[in-house]
Design a protein that fits this description.
By secondary structure, this protein is an all-alpha fold. It has a domain at about 30-55. About 60% of the residues lie in helices and about 0% in strands. It is built from two helices and no strands. The chain has helices spanning about 20-30, 35-55. The longest helix has 23 residues, at about 35-55. The model has no long low-confidence stretch (mean pLDDT about 80).
Length: about 55
Amino acid sequence: MSAQPDHTPATPYAPAPGSSAELLAQLRTDRRAERWVQAFERQWAAALEESRQTSA
């Protein structure tokens, strides 16, 4: 009998490095881009700032 677990714990979701740029490009082509792009950029900046503060 082994002390190793018989399953692998789930790893947290991590988006691909370029996925935010791809999403932003798609948002810019939508008819609601003016509102959506501003919201995306605002939330992205807030997430980056939070990441900087928690990793320091």
